[in-house]
Structures are given as C-alpha cells and as structure tokens.
Amino acid sequence: MARRVKGAGETGDKPPAVKARKSRSTTPTADSLAALSQERLIALILEEVGQSAAFKKRVSAALAALQGPDTVAAMVDRRLGALEKARGFIDWQKRRAFAADLDATLATILTDLKPLDPSMALDRLLRFLQGADATLERVDDSSGQVHAVYEAAAEAAAGLAAALPPEAALRFATRAIDGLDRDGFGLVSALLVDLLPKLTKEALDSLDASLVEALAALPPPVARKAGAVAAPGQDWERRYHRLRLSRLRQVIADARNDADAFIAIERDLSPERPDLPAVAERLLRAGRAEEALDWIRRKQKPGTVVVTRQDLIAGAIDPDGPEREREAVEIRILDALGRKEEAQALRWARFERSLDPQILRDYLARLPDFEDDEALERAFAHAASRKDPHSGLYFLIRWPNLDRAARLVLDRRGEWSGRIWELLAPAAEALEPDHPLAASLLYRALIGDILERARSPAYGHGARHLTRLGELARELRPGDLTPNHEDYVAALRKAHGRKSGFWSQVEG
After folding, report:
1. Model's pTM, two decimal places?
2. According to the UniProt record, where is the region Disordered (predicted)?
C-alpha cells in the first residue's frame, strides 16, 4: 500500500492548527495602545516626561484639568507671564524646542481649558496673541515655525469667538480692537478679519462706530516739509495703526455688502493710489459692472510693490502680480457685461505676454466648437518663437506638450543656459523617456555650467547628469549628437580634469 504524502501544513490526522496569531499592529493607535497594561503606559509616560519638557507640560495640564478650569488657567497664566517678562534672544538652535514649548501652551488652552470654560480659554488666547510681538522680536524665526504657532492660535480664537452668544462675541471683538496698537505682526488683526464677517449686523454697527472713534482719536500724520528727509521709522507706527483700523472697517463694509462704504474708506486711505482691483471687485459683486469697468481701467502711476511675509519665506516675489490681478478682474467684468470678444482678446494678450497655461485654458474653453485646435497650435507656435526660449520650454513642459518641447530644444540647441537649472533639470527628466536626444542636450548644458563655474556644491548633480547621459547615449543613433558620448567625456576630462571633486563623484 502506497504511503500517503502529507500535504503542506498537514500534521497527521488532526486538522491543521493555526501556528501563530496575526501580529498586532505596532502603530500607536487607540486600539493598539488599549492592549498595553496601565502600568506599562504609566511607565512610558513617565519616561517621556523626563525627556521632553513640552510633553511634561501637557501631562501636567491634563492633571490640572482634573481639578477644574481655575487650576488650568493658573498654569497657563504663569507661562504667559513668563513669556511677557522674558528678554533673552532665542537663536535658530533653540528655536525648535521653543516652538514646541509654545505649542504645548496653545494645546493646553485648546485641549484642557477650552472644554472646561470656553470664555477663559478665549481670554488666554487673546493674551497669548497680544504678547506675540515681544516674543517674535527676540526669536530667530526665519523658518516661520514660531509664527505658525501664533497663526494657529489666531485661527482658533476666531472660531471660538464666533461660537459665543452675540453680546459676548461683541465684547471680545471690542477688546481685541482696543489692543491693536500693539499688533505689529498683524496676528490680532488676522483674528478680527476672520471673525467680523460672522458677527451680527448690530455687532458690526457697534464695532464700526468704535473704529471710527479710534481713528478720530489718532493724532494726524506728521506733515513733511518739502525736501525734508524723514528719519527712519518716523510716524510709521501711527500710519500703520491707521491702516489697520481702516482695513477692519473695510472688512465690516464687505460683511454688510456695502460697496460705497468700502470705496469711501479706500479713497480716504489712498486718494492718489486706491486699490483699483479691490474697488472694481466690490462694484462687480454689487451688480454695478459698468462702474467697475470704469474703475479698473483708470490709470495710475507705478507704485511700491507690496511684498508679504509669505513671499519672503517662499522666495517668490512677483512684480507682475498686481497687473495680472488687474487684468483678471477686468476680464470678469467684461464677461459680466456680455462683451465676450473683448474678454477673449484680453485673455489672449495676457497669454502672449505671460505664457500662463491657465489663462490659455480659459481662452480655449470659451471658443466655438472646432476652433480650439487651431488656437492651441497658434499658442504652441507663439511659445516656440519667443526671443528667450526658456520661457517657451517652461510653458510646453507644464502644458504639457513634450513633442513640441523636444522640437524646441533641438531647434534652439545652442541657446540653453545651464544656469537656469530649476527649469532645465526637470525638463530633461520629463523628456528622457521619449526624447533622449533633447534630454541629452539639456543635460550637457547643465554639466557645462556646473564645471565652467566650478560650482562644487552641484558636483553631485553634475555627476548624476553625466551618468544619465551615458545611459541615454545607448538610445541615440550614430551622428545624432556631436561629439558622441565617449568624445564628450574625453573633452570634459581635458578641460576640467583638475576638478577632482567632480570626477571622484563620477567614479563613485
């Protein structure tokens, strides 16, 4: 009798047993932590308390919450008092720990105090924000990490105040306005901008009257004599405070849908350079498109370009932004008036100058059927014919039309600047799969710039580009690229052989 061979998993006559239970997830979640014993959790908490000052404060706040809101509020008040008295400078090395400490204070207010007494929590949030100027002036916050904590506090305060009964919300907003002269970083102003549209009409009327009184109480701006040079910072604080109060009045005007009040305030603020797009937007919203068109087409002398803190952090200063905004509003007005051809002409003119893909999409979407293909071809041809080919390549890569981008690279092969690496590197990567010759030309331009300028921090990038060139060379036909890859590398070694930092990375 033949012996039966046991199948996989069989163990004699008994049914196969489950050898091991499915392993429990090691990701900390409510369910996974519930499996730990109370003693183990306590030990873990105490271990972290000994290592993290911010976590220790969070645990202390949670314990204080068991005793009631007064205990938590007293803990927060001690921390806020210490912040208000502190004078030492916090450099970038200590910034992260300091931001974590601030975040722990904010979390204590929102997580531990707010559920027990929202009014007490809101009072502490306002005090926290009113002390932001003194704190931010003594912190190296180039990353915006500390400022972000205060922004979160302003957002939370606006939401909490909006949920109050109308009279309580009005009292809070009035207190916030009273402290605006100490709001150099605009955090309390941001809170009010968020809060005011959510208040009742009666509250808005009362706050607008308070703002008018506060503006009237301000001393007039210092008159400058002809030819006099103002001292640095002279009269700046009063002018800035006047601007803050007036902008809040405009927020109230918007909440009331009162375009005329908004315009009157704007004229008072800047009689020579009113914000034309802002005024036109309000008139358009009010159904007064003809007046809006008149405003948006008024001529103004060039003025100072406003650069926001976000622009500085991102390194994105856009001098063309105001004109682009003005044209966008004008296009919407023309559409509202039914002047479609004028709106389309403005869209095309804007595209010709900027090569903005979105404005082209808007233009194409409004064309009659079967006309969009011809217009799109005209747009591609215009992009390829620009005097500077880099802007055309940027547009074609973003659209995307990689075939036309590759053709542009080949047609203008001697014009590519490796200095514009933020365009050429991603363009080369995008072209690699289907257009190896165009990608190779861009990689050579990048490598040439790196070596000619001896940009040692970029040698690693150059080495990777050279490796990719070798791989792409196998996809090219003989004669596609002159010199071929081997001769190109030999020429690089001859011209830049002493740049050992580059060649060591290539060999590595």
Report:
1. 0.76
2. 1-30
